[in-house]
């Protein structure tokens, strides 16, 4: 498959569901969709187009958590990122775990660090933070503040 074939397939399959198509460079494409459309697009790009799931990442924005799923088309040197903005007042998105098992730990990590809920994820137990870490404290949120001397001593300077 060519880069143009990937672009044509995505636009043909999802049409109006694509909120924004950002052609960042010859090797990088961002596709913005509603969170409700992430599962369908992930399934299509992974199963039908044969992309490799690379990683998922998140960013804390003022009103939303920006959730991104990065896929590689290794043979043509293309990375496609599927992006959805999840409102902070309803911080839930469907888990992609039923489509790919490789997403299990990164969804758990994002849950801990950003507080995003992954609907349908069967194992959201803590992965990185101590077992007694408060469930409402998410260290990658911009509003997170260190509260103890121990917390302060564990920070890089």
Describe what is shown at a glance.
The chain is α/β, with parallel strands linked by helices and 157 residues long. It has 4 helices and 7 strands, in the order αββαββββαβα.
Span between termini: 47 Å
Strand order across the biggest sheet?
1-2-5-4-3
**What is the radius of gyration?**
17 Å
Assembly classification: single chain
Shape: elongated
Mean pLDDT: 92
Instruction: Let me know the largest β-sheet.
Output: 5 strands, mixed
The fraction of residues in strands falls at 25-35%
Helix content: 10-25%
Number of helices: 4
Secondary-structure-derived class: alpha/beta
Give the topology string: H per helix, E per strand: HEEHEEEEHEH
Unreliable residue stretches: 152-157
Count all strands and give the number. 7
Task: Annotate the secondary structure layout.
Elements: H1 3-14, E1 18-25, E2 28-33, H2 38-48, E3 52-60, E4 64-73, E5 78-87, E6 92-94, H3 104-114, E7 117-119, H4 149-153
Parallel strand pairs: 2-5, 6-7
Antiparallel strand pairs: 1-2, 3-4, 4-5
């Amino acid at each position: 498959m060519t880069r143009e074939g990937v672009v044509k397939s995505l636009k043909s399959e999802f049409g109006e569901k694509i909120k924004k198509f950002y052609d960042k460079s010859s090797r990088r494409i961002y596709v913005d969709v509603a969170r409700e459309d992430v599962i369908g697009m992930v399934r299509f790009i992974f199963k039908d187009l044969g992309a490799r799931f690379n990683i998922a990442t998140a960013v804390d924005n003022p009103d939303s958590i920006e959730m991104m799923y990065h896929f590689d088309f290794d043979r043509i040197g293309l990375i496609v990122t599927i992006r959805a903005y999840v409102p902070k007042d309803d911080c839930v998105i469907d888990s992609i775990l039923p489509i790919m098992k490789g997403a299990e730990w990164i969804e758990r990590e994002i849950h801990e660090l950003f507080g995003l809920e992954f609907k349908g994820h069967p194992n959201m137990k803590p992965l990185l933070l101590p077992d007694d870490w408060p469930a409402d404290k998410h260290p990658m949120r911009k509003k997170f503040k260190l509260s103890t001397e121990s917390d302060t001593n564990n920070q890089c300077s």
